[in-house]
Amino acid sequence: MDDEKTTNKNPANKKPAMISWRGDVTKLSSLRLKGFALAAPPMLWLLFLLTIPCISFIFIALAQRGEYGDVVWNFSAHNLKRLIGFGSFGWSIDYLKILGRSLLVALVTTVACVALAYPLTFHVATRPRKSRVFWLTLIIVPFWTNVVVRTYAWLLVLGPNLPPAKLAAWVGLIPAGTALYPSSMAVYLGMITTFLPFMALPLYASVERLNWDLLEAAKDLYASRWQVFRQAILPQTWPGLSVGIIVTFVPAMAMFVVTDILGGAKYMLIGNLIQQQFSQARDWPFGAALSVALMVMTLISLSVFRRRKINLDQNINLDQN
Amino acid sequence: MTGQIELGLMVAQAYKSYGNLQALKGVDLEVVKGEFYTLLGPSGCGKTTLLRIIAGLELPDSGRVFLGGREVTHLTAAKRQVNTVFQSYALFPHLNIFENVAFGLKARNFDPTQVGRKVGESLEMLSLSGLEKRYPHQLSGGQKQRVALARALVNEPEILLLDEPMSALDAHLRAQVQEDLRRLQRSLGTTFILVTHDQDEAMMISDRLAVMNNGVVVQTGTPRQVYSKPTNQFVAEFLGAANILPARRQGNQLFTNLGPLHVSETPYWEEGHLAIRPEHIVLEGEIPQGSVNCVRAQVREAIYRGQSLDLWLDPGPLRVRTNTRDRLGPGDQVSLFFPPDDLVALDNQPSRY
Amino acid sequence: MENKRPLIALTAIFSLVLLYIPSVAVAVFSVNKARYGLAWRGFTLDWYMKLFENEYILNAALNSLILAVISTLVATVLGTALALGIDRSPWSGSFHRFFDLVINLPVVVPDIIMAVALTLAFNVLRMVSSAFDLGMTTLIIGHITFQISFVTLVVRSRLASLNKETDEAARDLFASSFYLFRRVTLPLIMPGVLAGAMLAFTLSLDDFIISFFTHGPDSVTLPIFIFASLKRGLTPEIHALSTVMLLFTVVLVVLAERLARRF
């Protein structure tokens, strides 16, 4: 400790009062002050309205719901227990089921979107330069169309007495004169069409830069199409694909509009459950617990994809050697 | 040149380090007003750091900078009558050529008619008239460089700093631009300080130069002084080719593996190195009997270079540059004369550098 | 290349059909004379006319627009200030990590988490002032909160692409801090600022979840209006409204594309 004090007193180790910064000679403190003055208002805004509330969910999750929907601060793991099935009315895995279903729906949606986005982006990328803008616009417009407007349109298409429902009735899937919703098929249709542009746009950025020579070389080298995809296409498009997967999987897990409109009461996801706790049920502590669970799931999926990226990068290096 | 020499710039004991890297280790520099001065050295020698300290874009950790007798060490670039031509030219991409050149005048609130006149003059001086409305991305490399020059010179700086301004030009254009720059400096009489790693450029362009290595100034002087009398092995080898001969001194006599050699200035050391430029070694048909500094040698390799013929000789290897009229080839016997004036005893303490 | 891969082309077309069939159906039924049911009864533009007579819809449209404009303006200023404050000051590494964390949170966290976080914040703030009763104010604040980060990210990437030597050249040419900002920095980051504002504006129009949680009875936006009317059943007016919104999106996308090509 004494050593540190003496070195600090040494004038040679003292930081100079003035520093040069992007062509200016100024005091470090005045630069910091300027930066602070610019950054503080938006930072405080985000901190107080978003960051701190998100963190405080952890504490609220440990509290209890009061009789009138207020928060009672007697800390216990009650909400956590409830989440994993030990409710006040005995054993029930309803909530775990909802968590599982959220993951499943997100996973299926993501996989389907990947499967559709590759042909879609390849098709657009191989159009002549002039018409490519048009094809790209076809993907961008749904990207920016309000999710309520797009979901409700499915409600119309899948309604009773229209061709899709009639066809399903004729095959015998549903009674005649009824709609194709609420059903899991309706939910998946809604989910996939909602997220396909989210997957396709980042993927397109990578596909457009694809080295086509490498594909030809791969076709010569490998026998199967799968190997061409695995060895040549996947490594090259991974930057776009990983972004696409993240921006699809995470919001899909938390989806609330599509399931609410097309899934009916039976098709609850964690998003719907959270919404319920903060409105009808007025059970903030349990809602907070669910929010924390969703945040953890988000963090896990983000970190999974970061790790996957490193693995794939190593793979690319190996391939090139 | 008669009259009192006026000091344009003085740098005293400048030190600068970035983390563990010492960029400058006590640099002293004196530049006379109105001269073309060059900071020459390999990349990473600290020459650009020194230039940036003079410009006011970097603060020295310690040491002082004087401009025309006034201390400016802690003045920001905006408060120094010094302007810079950056290596990337750093033209403002969103401003046209007129606005680029006018920038320094407008920043100081010159009145519009004066701005128009000065910018016009400066553009004309650099043959850029007619390009006022163009944007930087519409210009060629040479034009961009001249805009950067005009933009700096329009402010009539005491000193113009040039940070490797030719590095972005192709070799063909470079020679032309070097000559233009030399002429421009002569006609303006402004002090120019150029940073370069190209020794040919430094030779042909500067009145005086400073050779830098590892954060120190190794040698200063006119191009002739520095080229013909390098103080140490680094300078000898950095400025063109040199034969370095290990030598021992006994009294006034120097012994090398070529035999005893006479040198005009006897070194202080007992053991050290002599240097001689390849073109300073004289090829002679016959060695006069009993003459000093003469050696017989055999051609090992002859390299025809158009303007000269380079010979690698045994014993040695010795490099001799001669004119192409000599028709020599491997195996030929030659006689060499080492003029005592051109044999330079090198400083024996290279460890510092 | 094209004709050799019929399967790829077919799948691509199938995807686009999936994306557009619902919207096309809505557009078709928006000009159908039938008030109830889904049978075709002939062409009409009555439902579009009715839109302009429906006070609720006009009000919601106005709310959506006011919300988008005000929140975009504020978020663009705040987001740009944040980007400048971070990139133009010598912050230490741990400060940068802190900034990145706070800025990236709204980008990675699902909307519903943001919505409930805002609900919580407003509940606390309401103890201080009744200005935070759910309504237009909270709606605007909510939108700004998720817009700031996106503006900051876009402007920061623009700032990162600027050459440090440009700043130094301006200083070398006698520019004061203010002159440097006004004549060099601001014009150079302007494309980024505009792109950020454009993004913020579209995000505001596109949002449903945050609005759903932070709006009050007097500040219903178009998506909320549609969502609420779905519970009462589908009407041709809603079809017409959706079609108008879709066309508005198309116009915005095309405009943005034109703008992007100019820079």
Written account of the structure:
With 321 residues, chain A is mainly alpha-helical. Chain A has 13 helices and six strands. In chain A, strand 1 and strand 2 form a beta hairpin. In chain A, helix 4 packs across helix 8, helix 4 packs across helix 10 and helix 8 packs across helix 10. Helices cover 24% and strands 33% of the residues of chain B. Chain C is mainly α and 263 residues long. Chain C has one domain: MetI-like fold (Orthogonal Bundle), CATH 1.10.3720. Chain C contains eleven helices and no strands. The longest helix of chain C is centred in the first third of the chain and has 33 residues. Chains in contact: A-B, A-C, B-C. At the A-C interface, helix 2, helix 4, helix 5, helix 6 and helix 8 of A face helix 1, helix 3, helix 4, helix 5 and helix 6 of C.
Note the main attributes of this structure.
A: 321 residues, mainly alpha, MetI-like fold, two-stranded antiparallel ribbon, 13 helices, 72% helix, disordered N terminus, disordered C terminus, B: alpha+beta, five-stranded antiparallel sheet
In short:
Chain B has 353 residues and is α+β, with helices and mostly antiparallel strands. Chain B has helices at 47-55, 97-107, 112-125, 141-153, 171-188, 199-205, 223-228, 233-238; strands spanning 7-18, 21-32, 36-40, 62-67, 70-71, 82-85, 159-163, 191-196, 208-213, 216-221, 243-250, 253-256, 259-261, 271-276, 282-284, 294-304, 309-314, 318-322, 333-337, 344-345.
List the helices and strands and how they pair.
The complex is a heterotrimer of chains A (321), B (353) and C (263).
Chain A lengths: L1 H8 L8 E4 L2 E4 H33 L3 E2 L5 E2 L5 H6 L2 E2 L2 E2 L2 H32 L3 H16 L2 H11 L5 H9 L12 H25 L3 H10 L3 H29 L3 H7 L6 H9 L5 H37 L1
Chain B lengths: L6 E12 L2 E12 L3 E5 L6 H9 L6 E6 L2 E2 L10 E4 L11 H11 L4 H14 L15 H13 L5 E5 L7 H18 L2 E6 L2 H7 L2 E6 L2 E6 L1 H6 L4 H6 L4 E8 L2 E4 L2 E3 L9 E6 L5 E3 L9 E11 L4 E6 L3 E5 L10 E5 L6 E2 L8
Parallel strand pairs in B: 3-8, 3-9, 6-7, 7-8
Antiparallel strand pairs in B: 1-2, 1-4, 4-5, 9-10, 11-12, 11-14, 12-13, 14-20, 15-19, 16-17, 16-19, 17-18
Chain C lengths: L5 H25 L15 H8 L1 H33 L5 H16 L2 H15 L10 H25 L3 H9 L4 H30 L2 H6 L7 H9 L5 H27 L1
